[in-house]
Write a structure and sequence with these properties.
5-stranded mixed beta sheet; single chain; 39% helix; two-stranded antiparallel sheet
Length: 332
Amino acid sequence: PLIRVEYSPYAKQQVRNIQNYWINDQAVKRKFVEAITIDGAESKDLDDAIWAEKTSFWYRISIHISDVTEAIPIYSPLDLEALKRTTSIYRKDQVLNMYPPELSQDLLSLDMNWEKLTLSLDIDLDFDWNILDAEVYESKFKNLKRYDYDNFLTDFINPESNNHNTLHLMYEIALKRQAIRKISWARMDYDESDRQLFVWEKQEKILDVNKNISKRIIEEFMIAANISAWIICVKNEIDSVFRIHSALDERAVYIPQNWLHMALATQNYTHFTSPIRRYSDDIIHRVLKLVLLRWEKNPYLKWMLHDVCKHINVSRSVIDILGILEKKGWLK
């Protein structure tokens, strides 16, 4: 089938193994980190968390992403299942998860139940809000607070709330980063943070001005993280997948070579921030962890990356077409 609903019996067995025996963590070391999550009230697959601080020399934003690939080895049944699907799909009446809900909405989700394994980025910005440096590392994450778009505003406007100053610093950074993109003629209606792929009618449209405060923070932090992941890959000459947009009237696609992203007005972009929802992000996580942090060989050869990119691009086109057909009532 073009859209897969059921998971293979081998993938289901792997889920049971993870539930029973947990994750065989192979990290050389993990740094303990704390941050917050911001998602829609209905969201269950939380795969990104953020934090910010200001020093005498720079601003630092931290992005902590669920370490999906530590639980799911390459070429395992769950990995192959995710490769077939390429993405989670959010329909108006259901979610078709790339990974089974027992993982995507529970064991791998960065909720507030217990500490979770994460892959983190610390990004230093100068006082002109440009990226100075970025570091990737393996971490163990604790969620300080699970925000939705409404309770975020409560803490944002309350000077007595625990995270009030940090939330305002995040918003300041987001506004400045957005201004930089505007000056560079980026398309401000182009959301490449792409935290959820709504190919049919959206479940929640963020129209309220107050809700846009938190949405803007997430969008700018995710874009900064994706740019930084690209910088680290290119700086260390690591073969991976890149997200490009070669003309404003064309869709963005994945290729194994570096190229510019015109809609975002940047020459450096990939997808790092949603490994629960996008297979491309799993690739980035694997190569960064194995090559840079564990000094192992890249598990993906160049031709393999080319074939995977082609598969993801075709799959996205098929999903978009099916979405159009369903909106028109031609597909049930």
